[in-house]
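Trying the structure run again after the queue cleared.
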Amino acid sequence: MQQIILTIHHYLAFVVVILLAWAAINGFSGTKGDKIWEEKYRKVNLFALIATHTMFLLGLILIVLALSNADMASIMKNAAARKAYVEHPAVGILAAILVTIGNAKSKKTIGNGKRFKATFVYFGLALLLILTRLPYEKLF
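Done. Tokens:
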């Protein structure tokens, strides 16, 4: 079961990165032009939110399973283990929070420019955080 969850988490990372990049690009292009906020932008943000939260929940399950019998002192001494079991999940939590805030702000803010700016800032920051802590050695 753990291997199935890990595989889904792995491939969902590609979807999350693509959706967050799409949302951030939409936000950037909207702040630089006179675009009107449309339903299609809200849907991209929503799909990015759903994918990010799904990946976060799968990662949470994986980390609970992995750390149930782990020695944290030895994990903190090993750089690779620390990245996998501490830094990667912590950044995942922050990215999920940023995406949630960005989605809420883009829905509730009045004004097209402010909606696009909120999307660009929050989804872009989440994308950058995720890209900094991806285990690139395991991606391909």
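The radius of gyration is 17 Å. Worth checking whether this holds up in the mutant runs.
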